[in-house]
Design goal:
two-stranded parallel sheet, globular, 7-stranded antiparallel β-sheet, 9 strands, alpha+beta, 206 residues, 5 helices
């Protein structure tokens, strides 16, 4: 037993610099996990046909801001859009639905694509901003997932605060791929015990 303990301490001591670097990374549960390719929502396909520039990959100049700056930008954009669009129940029929950027009135889809549009206009890479389909207590819902250095954060028209994804009582269904915004992937199920302590974040802390 003592020999095992000594060996373990030797390994820890020899690998301390690497261990410290690993500790600086966000836990894997902080990020939504992609599963497999799925069909994109028909309303999204129509949106890309009508607004192809919104579904393009990032330009080479796009860069994710430093973490605290990025979080402040998310908070500002989330609040601005939530206040500027008047909530309006629209048709959920994919053949009749229409996603719009910065409408006077709109539903969750309009809020989400508007926030994404504004952040990309501020220089964010499209790969860090992903539309996601969830099931909220009231039914199907669309939110924007923003991937920062320490995890995935959610911009939601139903919440005034930007929140970590694991703190929301949603069933996560599918989202845009990080590699190509026109491709959608299913979201892998994750044990909520891994992120039970993650919830609303106002200052970027856990």
């Amino acid at each position: 037993m003592k020999r095992h303990l000594i060996a373990a301490w030797l390994v820890v001591g020899l690998s301390m610099p690497c261990y410290a670097a690993e500790q600086a990374k966000a836990p894997s549960a902080s990020f939504l996990k992609e599963a497999q390719n799925v069909l994109a929502p028909l309303s999204f396909v129509k949106f890309c046909m009508n607004s192809p520039a919104e579904c393009e990959q990032s330009s080479s100049e796009a860069r994710l801001p430093e973490r605290d700056t990025a979080f402040s930008m998310l908070t500002e954009v989330n609040a601005t859009v939530n206040q500027s669009i008047h909530p309006l129940a629209k048709s959920t029929d994919p053949l009749r639905s229409h996603w719009a950027i910065s409408p006077t009135s709109g539903d969750c889809n309009d809020y989400a694509v508007t926030k994404r549009h504004m952040l990309i206009a501020k220089g964010w890479p499209a790969s860090a901003l992903r539309l996601a389909v969830v099931y909220a207590p009231a039914g199907g819902h669309l939110v924007l997932v923003a991937r920062l250095q320490d995890g995935d954060y959610i911009l939601d028209n139903l919440a005034s605060d930007v929140q970590r994804w694991g703190g929301l009582d949603y069933q996560w269904v599918s989202m845009e791929s990080g590699e190509n915004p026109r491709v959608w992937v299913s979201i892998a199920k994750q044990d909520r015990r891994d992120f039970a302590g993650l919830g609303s974040v106002k200052d970027g802390s856990n």
